[in-house]
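Thread amino acids onto this structure.
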């Protein structure tokens, strides 16, 4: 610490690059400070630092980090506390360019493992990563201001956020209990034959299209009696709510009655949410995947023949490639790819579907002979997917009654409250028999899908564009329609996963499953930080296998000529 101090003083007023000499690690009373990377000038991206607090000094009880779900919740809790403290000291030191900026990861409503705060499972060591704009006056070093940051402003913030004795211990305890309860909900889904659980009293709608915070004065969720299940949670005790059973579930109702809001909630609830979010006691099966139309996407050697056959241009749909899919072929590819990557729950909203992929009505079936229609609409396969592959579907279908015939459960949203109307719907449907043949019978087990993964470039430069996608060395990867990607940090992790796989398997033809297994095993075993090489770990958040697959599928496709 003293060495750092005298070194900082010795470079005062020198040219900015002299800051580079500070790279290294320094002992402070409560922690080690690491300066991992120093920016080249005051206007460049700020310098990367981290602090390391030994488990002994941090003093966090072992039962808060021994188990994975608790550790992730603890890291999230510590990170939010640290970010709050950092907010108060950012730009208190002044100067040109980014001088005095102190920045740290900004988690949204969900609780995910993030590289910005890591707690060691074995010994409770705590690590915070952040960045600092090293202060300058013009282009020369302002040593006093950096001294102020590292010796006055930062130490109390680190100690308040990282030492157990300074934490709000009651709030931490509640966070641990919520994490246990959330795990228990998720754990009971399978046993109870459910694909999702929505607790009574939950708040589903969000504040606005751009805010994920809960809507104030919303109609709170209340399960219809017939779908109500009781889950036993370790801390909260009995928790009642709506269980959505496996199989085919329809969400119907008038326009603006809350159908899409319920579906969106299910999409988001593959991850746990923080206390106060309104969705903290909601869980969707962790392989739940939003399926939508995505015209213009590329598809690479995918077998979409279950849904599309004999295209008029004679194109093969058993091994189908295109750089510019139509609405229906893109939705077919999205469905097949999701199941291939392990999804057992498809979440579909008619608002974002290709109508001709979903359904074809009788009159059209009559006029256009089956031989001339390449599309086998989803309605013909939805039962088969469940019966043969155990893939359930939750489908918002406000405008098409034909789906009544294939549904196991029908939920009507009525002024934002769900009612179960399965009996009524089935009875009404009885008077309008379905005049189309549904597809039945065994589905051939999917053959192992081999893909060619282009080699990684020497130096890959990844630039993330929020939840829209990223570029690697100027090549754009558009992931806008993987709607469950949470934020830019998760996007960066997905990009890094791709680069990891290209370093490992680039230039080879490999089974898709092997690629996904390989990266998910790494993440499971070594955590999110294992995705990077080198000393600086950027802010990343844990992705799912399904989104990594979505990225791979779109990336390899763009190589087709
Ligand atoms: P639908 O898909 O049935 O047309 P939406 O789910 O899009 O309807 O909801 C319509 C509007 O109602 C949205 O602006 C949404 O924010 C609002 N909304 C949804 N659920 C609730 C609720 N529980 N309480 C209050 N407003 C809600
Ligand atoms: Mg809608």
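Threaded sequence (561 positions):
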């Amino acid at each position: 610490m003293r060495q750092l101090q005298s070194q900082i003083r010795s470079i005062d007023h020198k040219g900015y690059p002299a800051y580079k000499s500070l790279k290294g690690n320094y002992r402070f009373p409560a922690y080690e400070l690491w300066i991992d990377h120093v920016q080249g000038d005051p206007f460049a991206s700020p310098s990367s630092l981290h602090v390391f607090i030994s488990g002994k000094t941090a003093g966090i009880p072992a039962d808060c980090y021994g188990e994975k779900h608790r550790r992730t919740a603890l890291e999230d809790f510590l990170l939010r506390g640290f970010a709050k403290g950092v907010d108060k000291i950012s730009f208190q030191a002044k100067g040109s360019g980014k001088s005095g900026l102190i920045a740290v990861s900004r988690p949204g409503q969900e609780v995910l493992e993030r590289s910005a705060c890591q707690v060691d499972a074995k010994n409770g060591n705590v690590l915070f990563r952040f960045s600092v704009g090293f202060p300058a006056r013009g282009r020369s070093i302002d040593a006093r201001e950096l001294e102020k940051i590292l010796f006055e402003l930062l130490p109390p913030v680190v100690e308040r956020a990282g030492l157990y004795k300074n934490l709000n211990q009651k709030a931490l305890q509640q966070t641990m209990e919520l994490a246990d309860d959330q795990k228990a909900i998720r754990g009971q889904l399978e046993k109870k034959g459910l694909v999702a659980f929505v607790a009574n009293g939950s708040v589903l709608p969000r504040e606005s299209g751009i805010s994920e915070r809960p809507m104030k004065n919303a109609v709170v969720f209340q399960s219809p009696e017939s779908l109500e299940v009781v889950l036993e949670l370790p801390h909260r005790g009995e928790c009642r709510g709506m269980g959505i059973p496996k199989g085919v579930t329809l969400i119907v109702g008038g326009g603006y009655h809350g159908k899409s809001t319920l579906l969106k909630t299910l999409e988001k609830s593959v991850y746990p949410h923080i206390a106060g979010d309104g969705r903290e006691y909601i869980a969707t099966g962790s392989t739940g995947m939003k399926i939508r139309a995505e015209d213009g996407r590329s598809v690479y050697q995918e077998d979409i023949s279950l849904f599309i056959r004999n295209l008029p241009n004679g194109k093969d749909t058993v091994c189908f490639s295109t750089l510019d899919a139509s609405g229906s072929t893109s939705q077919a590819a999205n469905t097949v790819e999701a199941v291939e990557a392990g999804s057992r729950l498809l979440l579909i909203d008619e608002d974002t579907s290709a109508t001709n992929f979903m359904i074809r009505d009788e009159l059209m079936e009559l006029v256009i002979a089956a031989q001339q229609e390449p599309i086998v609409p989803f309605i013909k396969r939805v039962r088969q997917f469940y019966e043969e592959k155990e893939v359930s579907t939750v489908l918002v279908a406000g405008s098409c009654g034909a789906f009544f015939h294939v549904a196991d459960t029908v939920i009507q949203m009525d002024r934002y409250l769900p009612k179960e109307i399965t009996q009524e719907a089935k009875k009404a449907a009885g008077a309008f028999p379905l005049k189309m043949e549904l597809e039945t019978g065994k589905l051939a087990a999917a053959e192992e899908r081999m893909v060619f993964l282009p080699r990684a470039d020497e130096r890959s430069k990844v630039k993330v564009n929020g939840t829209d996608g990223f570029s690697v060395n100027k090549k754009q990867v558009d992931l806008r329609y993987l709607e469950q990607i949470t934020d830019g940090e998760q996007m960066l992790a997905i990009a890094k996963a791709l680069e990891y796989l290209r370093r490992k398997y680039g230039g080879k033809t490999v089974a898709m499953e092997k690629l996904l297994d390989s990266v998910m095993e790494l993440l499971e075993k070594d955590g999110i930080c294992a995705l990077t090489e080198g000393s600086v770990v950027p802010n990343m958040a844990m992705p799912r296998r399904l989104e990594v697959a979505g990225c791979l599928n779109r990336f390899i496709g763009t190589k087709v000529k």
